[in-house]
Amino acid sequence: MNTPSAVAFDETRAEAFANRLVGTLNEAALALMTSLGHRTALFDVLSAAGDVTSKELADRAGLSERYVREWLGVMVTAGVAEYAAAPKTYRLPAEHAAFLTRAASPNNIAVTSQFIGVSAAVEEEMLARFKDGAGTHYHNYCRFHAVMAEDSAQTVVAALTDQILPLVPGLAARLENGINVADVGCGGGRAMLALAREFPASTFTGFDLCGDAFAETEATARRLNLSNLTFRQQDLSQVTSLGTFDLVTAFDAVHDQKDPQGLLHLVSNSMAEGGVFLMQDIGGSRDLETNKNNPFAPLLYTISLMHCTPISIGQGGPGLGTMWGVETAHEYLEIAGFGQVETHRLPHDPINAYFVARH
C-alpha cells in the first residue's frame, strides 16, 4: 500500500497546477474589474465609442482618466479590449461587447460578475462562521438585493412573455382575462412590476422578508399608478396561507429560505382550484459527482457557501445551499402535494431550471 510520502511527486502535474493558479489569480482580478466596468458603464461607453483614447473614454463616461487608464490596462492585458500603441487608443470588439454591455442582455455576463464582489465583502464574516457554524443575515451583504434584482431582470423579467409564461399553456390568456397572482420571495419585485403593467386585468402581490428589497419597485408602481400591484413584507415561515391565488411564482428564492419545505406547503395551501405554481431555481444536482460536469459549478458552490447556505442557517433553517438540486426540488414539491411536476430548461438561462407544478 502506498503512503503519501511514498507516492512519486509529479513535477509536470505540479507545474500545470501552479500555472492554473496563476491563471486563477488573473481571472479573479478580471472578474472584479468586469464588475467595475459594468457599474461605471465603461463597457457600454467603450463599445459605443469605437477607437478612443483613455481621456476621451473617461470624459464620455464622466470618470477620472487616471483610474480609467488603469482599468484599461487590465482589459488590454486580459485580452478583453484591443489597444493600438500609436496613437494609444482602445476599442472593445463587438464579439466581446456581446457579453459585457447592457445592450447584450440577457447575455451580459458582467452583471453576474458582481456576485464576486458581493461574496468577497463577507469574507471576514464567513471566516467566523466557519468556526462557530452560525449563519449570516441580509444586512451583512452590501448590494445583494440590487445585484440579485439586476440578475433577475436578465434571466426572468426579460424572458417572461416570450419564454417563461409559455411554459404553461394558456397562461397568458388567463392573465389577460384577469387572475390573482402571488410571487413568494419576490426580492426586488421587478417580475411582478412587468406583469402588472402588461396584464392590467390581473392582480399581483409580491411577498418578501425584506421590505428594503422591493422598496424601489414599490415606489415605481406608485408613480405609475398601478393599482393592481402590491407588496407585503412577510416572514413566510410564520403563516399557513397567503390567500387564494391562481398563479404563484418563485424566482430563485426557495432554496435559501428558512424553511424551504414549509414554503412549498404554504404555496400549496394558497392555490386556487386549477392553480399553477411556476418556480425557477438553480438547475444543478444535489450530487457532487454530477456537478463536476457543470461549467458553472465552482461559481454556484461559491455563492452557496458565501450567501445561500449561511442566510438559511442564520434564519434557523437547514442551509440547503444553492446546489440543493433538481432532485430535492422534485421531492419537496411532491411532499407539498403537487402531483404533477414538469421540469424545463430554457436556452437563455443555462444556470436555472423551471418547474411547473399542479395539484
Automatic annotation (TrEMBL):
Domain of life from the UniProt record: Bacteria
Molecular function GO labels: methyltransferase activity
Domain (S-adenosylmethionine-dependent methyltransferase Rv2258c-like winged HTH): residue spans on this chain: 28-102
The keyword Transferase belongs to this UniProt entry's keyword annotation: yes
Keyword field contains Transferase: yes
Pfam families named in the record: Methyltransf_31, WHD_Rv2258c
Methyltransferase domain segment(s): 176-283
Alphabetized UniProt keyword annotations: Methyltransferase, Transferase
GO biological process: methylation
Record's protein name: Class I SAM-dependent methyltransferase
Classification lineage: Bacteria, Pseudomonadati, Pseudomonadota, Alphaproteobacteria, Rhodobacterales
